[in-house]
């Protein structure tokens, strides 16, 4: 069964905004999705709503990816957290890797009230909670602070992976993560 206009718009926007940024033109989105302009407004209220929904969809996929990565690493919280950096090392070497879509959207969207910013904040908060839960299981003395630090390392890997080809930011971040995880007061 062929996807409907809403799904085609989401798919096209998810690909195009990652490849070209959120400034990609509406006409390009509509052409790629093979939908009429009316569909954009009916389903999303306009481009801003589409961008927010794409980020929401991507966030759910990425959060599930973190959970799969940690699940595959077993039950040890330390290994589960370090597995994230191993996986990021793979992600940033993929030929279509363009960096962190959330950071890129936040930087590109100057309007602080753009609905995409609420989505990116919520995504980061959920990932931080996921990290903090593992840190609590690990018995870390400052799980909230350490989760913030790990998220900063994740953001750094994504940014450096996109802007400094030929480097290994995931390995460097993993080493720093090991120090954070080893903290004992």
In short:
Keywords: DNA-binding, Transcription, Transcription regulation. This protein is mostly helical and 185 residues long. The protein has nine helices and no strands.
| Helical run tally | 9
The N- to C-terminal Cα distance equals 57 Å
Compute the number of structural domains: 1
Low-confidence stretches: none
CATH architectural arrangement = Orthogonal Bundle
The CATH homologous superfamily is termed Tetracycline Repressor, domain 2
Q: What share of residues is helical?
A: over 70%
Q: Compute the average pLDDT.
A: 96
Helix-strand sequence = HHHHHHHHH
Q: Give me the count of strands.
A: 0
Query: Which value, in Å, is the CA radius of gyration?
Result: 18 Å
Structural class call reads: mainly alpha
Which quaternary structure do these chains form? single chain
Question: Which percent band covers the strand fraction?
Answer: under 5%
The CATH topology label is Tetracycline Repressor, domain 2
The top level CATH class name: Mainly Alpha
Sketch the major β-sheet: none
Overall spatial form: elongated
Description:
- Residues 3-62 form the HTH tetR-type domain.
- Keywords: DNA-binding, Transcription, Transcription regulation.
- Pfam families: TetR_C_31, TetR_N.
- The mean pLDDT is 96.
- The protein starts with a helix and ends with a helix.
- It has a single domain (5-182), classed as Tetracycline Repressor, domain 2, CATH 1.10.357.
- The relative contact order is 0.12.
- It is elongated.
- The protein has 9 helices and no strands.
- The longest helix is centred in the N-terminal third of the chain and has 26 residues, at 47-72.
- The protein is mainly α.
């Amino acid at each position: 069964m062929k996807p409907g206009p809403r799904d085609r718009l989401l798919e096209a926007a998810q690909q195009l905004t990652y490849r070209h940024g959120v400034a990609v033109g509406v006409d390009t989105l509509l052409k790629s999705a093979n939908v009429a302009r009316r569909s954009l407004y009916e389903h999303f209220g306009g481009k801003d709503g589409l961008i927010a929904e794409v980020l929401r969809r991507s966030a759910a996929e990425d959060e599930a990816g973190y959970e799969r990565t940690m699940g595959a690493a077993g039950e040890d919280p330390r290994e589960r957290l370090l597995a994230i950096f191993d996986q990021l090392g793979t992600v940033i070497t993929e030929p279509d890797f363009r960096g962190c879509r959330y950071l890129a959207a936040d930087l590109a969207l100057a309007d602080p009230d753009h609905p995409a910013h609420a989505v990116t904040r919520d995504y980061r908060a959920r990932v931080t909670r996921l990290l903090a839960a593992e840190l609590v299981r690990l018995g870390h003395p400052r799980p909230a602070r350490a989760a913030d630090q790990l998220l900063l390392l994740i953001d750094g890997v994504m940014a450096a992976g996109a802007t400094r080809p030929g480097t290994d930011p995931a390995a460097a971040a993993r080493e720093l993560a090991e120090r954070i995880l080893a903290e004992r007061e």
